[in-house]
Design a protein that fits this description.
1 helix, 26 residues, mainly alpha, 0% strand, 85% helix
Length: 26
């Protein structure tokens, strides 16, 4: 279960970074 949590955390971080980069594209 812990392994799954880390996986989801990494995925969430990657999505956040991707969205932030896309939004910060000026």
């Amino acid at each position: 279960m812990l392994s799954n949590l880390g996986y989801w955390v990494q995925l969430s971080v990657q999505i956040a970074v991707y969205k932030n980069r896309d939004h910060s594209c000026t």
